[in-house]
Structure formats: structure tokens, C-alpha cells
């Protein structure tokens, strides 16, 4: 067969298939870059045709593999396999010995030209793969500014602190001042001035923590009455929240807990004022419809004294486990300030009278949030705290 190429006027005879040429995107038949004598079937040896066929198929394989290489490492491998020093194309050089001196340069040029073509294809494929790699990385590292931001975990108030603030807000709204007093108190302030005699059971070693220097960790916040009434002139309306300590520990008692103390001293203050203020407070805290009841009780520093119950907020008064089937929950102690206490603070009980009350902050918090173990309030376990 004799072919004439488009850009060369040499009639050449070449083996190989049009299909290979199609895959290689090269002109078929292969243009033979030669300045030498024209080749045709008569002048082409069997050995040359065989070698050209081999070059043809090696190159077809090479291009096929290179254009479909899907990664840079794979491409490196192919380059070594085909174009490397010991590669398939280099192997073809060794077969040149079978050719005549005249044919050698022809086959050599043919091989070199086609090899240059493969080098170009390899470079092109490399650029494509590198560009794809850059694109892939850019996409992987791209920031989607439309995504919602990651929320920053922030803390919130402890349920006890929430209760304290809520209580203070209610009493402030009724004109009370918020004050503080120390946790380590003298026996006078914690007991004597409050009309608690030396042999009162509350002073028992089991209830009270004494310091080595004979002070006490306050067992209640009522000492605040003594401190502020001694320092300030009536009329007074003060509440004070803080830690108190008693040697006691079970699911409803902790050796340290919180109380809020409140009192009011003015002219002609009666039990009616006490009930009015506490009802307003309890209904504001637990809900406007909550029922309350005042039961006679005893405290050395108030006379008369009462304990206040609210209708059980769990069963609405019908009786449940929390209220021991009574329908009522005891929430605070209160009473009219004992004249001895007023006198101990330099206030004349003939001119002034007042009421006082003490609230367990822990109990209020437990009732409000349905917590059944006081220790949960002090363990700082986030699994518990984040529920509020
Ligand atoms: N201090 C009392 C207690 O701790 C409560 C209380 C305060 C009672 C004020 C009456 C008046 O139990």
C-alpha cells in the first residue's frame, strides 16, 4: 500500500491501523519525517514494517494509558514505563539492529517524532491532573460563608442564683433593700441577740459548726436582722441571702445551704402585713393561683411565729409523694419580731414593731424546678445544670 501524507509529499507505506490513529488523534497514516528516499512497499523491508508496527502499537498503548491516567502518581508510573530509560519505547531502540543502514534513520526519526508526541500528551495530561488537584484542594478548603455559624457554648446562671435573683426582684419591687452579712458570726449575733438561750438545742454540736476561736458558721441568716437593726435606724425593710451551715446531710439536707432572710420594722406593723407581703411574694414566685396557709409554730426570735405552706405545686393540693399526701408544702418560717430582739438592737418595741421571715433558697429552687436531691445543686455536674 502506498499513502501520501497531507503535508509531505513522500509516498509512504506504513503498517498500523486507522483505529490506533484515531485513538492517538494523529494523522493516519503516520507522516514519516524523512529527507531520504521515498518508501514504498517495494523498498520497505519486512523488519522495518514490523518495527514500525510495534512503534505504532506501543505509542497507541502509551497514549491510551496516559490520557486515562487518573492521578499524578499513576502518570509518573506510566512515564517511567513508557518514556523512561528502561521503558517500552527505549526497548524499541534495541531492535534497530535488524534494519539496514538506510532504514535505521527512518525508523529512528519515526520513533523520535512519535515519542515527542507522547511527551507532549504526557505534559498536557500532567497539567490537567495538576489543575484538577488544585481545584480539588481549593474546593476542600473553601469556606462556605452561607453555613450557619458554630454556636459558642456559653454558660448560664445556676438555678440557685436564678432563684436568688428572682426573689430579690420580687422583694425589691415591694421596697425592700438587699444587704449582706458575714458567714462567720459571733455567738451573740447568731444566737443570743436572737433570743436563743445558751441551752437551746440549735446550739448543739450536732447542728452547729464552731470555729476554733469560738465563732460559729452561721446556722441561719437571721443574724442579719441583728447586724442591720443595730446599725440602721427604722423604718427598715431588708432582705439578705447567703450560705448557712448545719451539721446535717441527706437528700433534702446539705451541710451548707442557702437562706434568704427578710424583715420589716415600722410603726404599727401587724401579722396582717406579714401575711400580705408573704402571700404577694409566694404568689409572685409560684404562680398567682397558689394557695397558702399559715400554721402556728415556734421560733425564739419571733412571737407569734408561723410556718407557711403553699399548695403542693406538683399535685395542686390533691396529695402526692412530694407533699406526703398532705397537699401542702412547707416553704418558710416567719413571725412578728420578738420584743427582746428589737430591744437587743436598741429599738424600742413600744414604738416599733416588725415581722421577719426565713426562706430556704434550696427548697424553693427544688420545688420550682422539680429537683428531688439537694446535692445535685452543689455537684456542678453539667449534665444536670444544662437542663435549666
Ligand atoms: N431562722 C429560721 C430558720 O433558720 C427561719 C426564720 C427566720 C423564722 C425569720 C422566723 C423568722 O429556720
Tags for this model:
alpha+beta; 388 residues; binds phenylalanine; two-stranded antiparallel ribbon; seven-stranded mixed beta sheet; disordered N terminus; BirA Bifunctional Protein, domain 2; 17% strand; 39% helix; 12 helices
Please characterize this protein's 3D structure:
By secondary structure, this protein is an alpha+beta fold. The chain has 2 domains: 3-141, no CATH class; 159-385, Bira Bifunctional Protein, Domain 2 (BirA Bifunctional Protein, domain 2, 2-Layer Sandwich), CATH 3.30.930. 39% of the residues lie in helices and 17% in strands. The chain contains 12 helices and 11 strands. The strands form 3 sheets. A 7-stranded mixed β-sheet has the order 3-6-7-11-10-9-8, sandwiched between helices. Strands 1-2 form a two-stranded antiparallel ribbon. It has a two-stranded antiparallel ribbon with strand order 4-5. Helix 1 packs parallel to helix 2, helix 2 runs antiparallel to helix 3 and helix 3 packs antiparallel against helix 5 (103-141). The two termini are 93 Å apart. The site of phenylalanine (PHE) has 11 residues, from strand 10 and strand 11.
- The class by helix and strand makeup works out as alpha+beta
Number of domains: 2
Total DSSP E strands: 11
- CATH fold-level assignment of the largest domain: BirA Bifunctional Protein, domain 2
As laid out across the biggest beta sheet, the strand order is 3-6-7-11-10-9-8
How many strands, which pairing sense, and closed or not: the largest β-sheet?
7 strands, mixed
Amino acid at each position: 500500500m502506498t499513502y501520501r501524507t497531507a503535508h509531505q509529499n513522500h509516498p509512504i507505506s506504513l503498517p498500523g491501523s486507522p483505529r490506533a490513529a484515531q485513538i492517538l488523534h494523529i494523522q493516519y497514516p503516520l507522516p514519516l519525517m524523512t529527507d531520504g528516499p521515498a518508501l514504498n512497499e517495494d523498498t520497505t523491508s519486512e523488519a522495518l514494517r514490523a518495527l514500525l508496527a510495534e512503534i505504532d502499537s506501543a505509542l497507541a498503548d502509551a497514549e491510551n494509558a496516559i490520557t486515562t491516567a487518573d492521578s499524578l502518581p499513576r502518570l509518573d508510573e506510566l512515564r517511567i514505563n513508557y518514556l523512561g530509560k528502561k521503558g517500552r519505547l527505549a526497548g524499541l531502540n534495541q531492535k534497530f539492529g535488524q534494519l539496514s543502514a538506510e532504514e535505521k534513520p527512518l525508523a529512528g526519526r519515526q520513533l523520535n517524532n512519535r515519542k515527542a508526541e507522547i511527551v507532549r500528551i504526557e505534559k498536557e495530561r500532567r497539567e490537567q491532573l495538576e489543575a484538577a488537584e488544585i481545584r480539588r484542594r481549593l474546593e476542600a478548603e473553601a469556606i462556605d460563608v452561607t453555613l450557619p455559624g458554630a454556636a459558642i457554648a456559653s454558660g448560664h446562671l445556676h438555678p440557685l442564683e436564678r432563684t436568688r435573683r428572682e426573689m430579690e426582684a420580687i422583694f425589691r419591687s415591694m421596697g425592700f433593700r438587699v444587704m449582706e452579712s458575714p458567714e462567720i458570726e459571733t455567738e451573740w449575733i447568731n444566737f443570743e441577740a436572737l433570743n436563743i438561750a445558751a441551752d437551746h438545742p440549735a446550739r448543739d454540736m450536732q447542728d452547729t459548726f464552731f470555729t476554733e476561736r469560738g465563732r460559729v458558721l452561721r446556722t441561719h441568716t437571721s443574724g442579719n436582722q441583728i447586724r442591720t437593726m443595730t446599725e440602721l435606724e427604722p423604718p427598715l425593710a431588708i432582705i439578705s441571702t447567703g450560705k448557712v451551715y448545719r451539721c446535717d446531710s441527706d437528700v433534702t439536707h446539705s451541710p451548707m445551704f442557702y437562706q434568704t432572710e427578710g424583715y420589716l420594722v415600722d410603726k404599727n406593723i401587724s401579722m396582717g402585713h406579714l401575711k400580705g407581703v408573704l402571700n404577694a411574694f409566694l404568689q409572685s414566685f409560684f404562680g398567682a393561683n397558689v394557695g397558702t396557709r399559715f400554721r402556728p409554730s415556734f421560733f425564739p426570735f419571733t412571737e407569734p411565729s408561723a410556718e407557711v405552706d403553699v399548695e403542693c405545686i406538683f399535685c395542686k393540693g390533691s396529695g402526692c409523694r412530694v407533699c406526703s399526701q398532705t397537699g401542702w408544702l412547707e416553704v418558710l418560717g416567719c413571725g412578728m419580731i420578738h420584743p427582746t430582739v428589737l430591744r437587743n438592737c436598741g429599738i424600742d418595741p413600744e414604738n416599733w414593731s416588725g415581722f421577719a421571715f426565713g426562706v430556704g433558697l434550696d427548697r424553693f429552687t427544688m420545688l420550682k424546678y422539680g429537683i428531688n436531691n439537694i446535692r445535685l445543686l452543689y455537684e456542678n455536674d453539667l449534665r444536670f445544670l444544662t437542663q435549666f
